[in-house]
Amino acid sequence: MYRSPKPLEELALDLLFESYGEHRYGRSAEEYQYLSTLTENIKDVHFRVNKRLAEYKKSGKPRWGGICYFQSGDATLRYKPFPETISIETIRSALDFSGFRKPKWRKKRL
Question: What's the whole-model pTM score?
């Protein structure tokens, strides 16, 4: 089953690569490989993302007024305020989903 990326995950990836002065779209395979090397240390990634969020908050000009959580079949738009922090679990999920990080081994549940 296909899962589309959540808006907060997309924001986390955008902020991460923005902190390096990079863009994540329209790259060659070698360039994507280089971008994945930037995401190896999850604690550094978490720090960079939340630092960019703090910079936006300090400037008083967030990227967006809010994050839209609209899905197909919804009757109305749902917005949440621009976040002040993003959890390490959300960032890890974004990196795993986008292919910038390989999921670690996990014990199978019975």
Answer: 0.82
